Amino acid sequence: MERYLNTPIKEIITSFPEVGKILEEYSIGCVPCTLGSCLLKDIVAIHNLAEDKELELMYRIEKTIYPERDIKKPVFKASKKEPDKEIRYSPPMKRLVDEHTLIKKWIGLIPQVIENVDIESESGSQLILDGLDFIRFYADKFHHAKEEDILFDYTDKNLDIIRTILADHEAARGHVKEMLKAIGEKDTNAIIGHLCAYKDLLTEHIKKEDEILYPWIDRGLSTTQVGELFAKFNEAEEKMDKGVIEKCQKFIAEAEQRIENFHRS
Amino acid sequence: MMDGCPGARTQDFREKETKGDESGKRQSQLRQWPIQLHLVSPEAPYYQKADVLLSADCVAFTVGDFHKDYLKGKSIAIACPKLDEGQDEYVEKIKSWIDDTKINTLTVMIMQVPCCGGLVAMAQQALQSAKRKIPVKSIVVSLQGDILSEEWVEA
């Protein structure tokens, strides 16, 4: 089993698809992950399951991998370590979660944008361009930059979970680049394809960060580090152009109405 | 046992079984004097950019490993939100920690009795009126020294 504890989860799921289903039962969503390079032992540690749940999970995985072995079923005593169902974030982490709320509003609007996409009209292409500005300036420069330039310095950047998150950021940037190109070429299908892919990527990415990454980082931070992070986030925000951020917030506030108007006309 | 205010109700814990390592001596983790909130200057050097612990008076007598687990690495002030007078001055001093001394974090450690909640309320009032914002944590201790909750406070 030691060998599999140090094996990337994608390899395990490919060889034993049942393991993916078992992980999902414990709210561990490795199956749709874009990389799947996290080691099984890290995944189990990062998810902070109650002790009895962790024992049960490992028993079921081992039994799936080695069905012929006589593996002793652990006694599942009710655990004292039952993590809170409600996730409580430290103030700097809460700020990142709050920023996700605005990004999720844009993601929620993407299906309507796709339905009404009209790259030939000025208002239609402007809506897409403004949406891309929101992604570039708010989701990327304002939000992802805080993670990449500040938060991840408090982690080991070589860990697979961090590499997965960074790969998501790069993939998102790739979609934006392709969408800008597609607007120039008036390629509606490419715009729709990349908007859809961006929506799916960010939906999964935000869930991963809110439910797994941020609570895991929070558990390892000292009170002093929480204060430092909070101060560094403040400094980073002060350096940013407030007008651009306000414009992004205004875009989300008005986007729904713009899509509706566009639909009526 | 008497009824009445939970903060003043007589309770006897003499029968409680004590566990833990009684051998060896621990060093004090106190790095400053004075400590009482009326006596301290909020601009004292040991508060500059520090992680500050604002503890209710009773806490240090209740938590067995107070020095090791909570005071270590922090600057402290103590106060009693039930008995102390001049609490407006307390709010001003906390605000000065945040704005002038630019403390890094504030941890407010209180007993579970209702009157102790006033210390957290003072910290929140100071935080709301301060120009700077900092993370504030509240830790609630049971009458027998267990940690009941430890959470970050909304500004």
Question: Briefly, what is this?
Answer:
The complex is a heterodimer of chains A (265) and B (155). With 265 residues, chain A is mostly helical. Chain A contains eleven helices and no strands.
Number of strands of chain B: 5
What's the N-to-C terminus distance of chain B?
38 Å
Q: Secondary-structure element order of chain B, as H and E?
A: EHHEHEHEE
Rg from Cα of chain B: 16 Å
Write the CATH architecture name of chain B.
3-Layer(aba) Sandwich
Shape of chain A: globular
Largest sheet of chain B: 5 strands, mixed
Assess the beta-strand content of chain B as a share of residues: 15-25%
How many separate helices of chain B?
4
How many domains of chain B, as an integer?
Answer: 1
Give me the count of strands of chain A: 0
Residue share in helix of chain A? over 70%
Report the CATH C-level class of chain B. Answer: Alpha Beta
Hey, which two chains have the biggest interface?
A-B, 14 and 11 residues
What strand line-up does the widest sheet of chain B have? 2-1-3-4-5
> What portion of the residues of chain A fall into strands of 2 or more residues?
under 5%
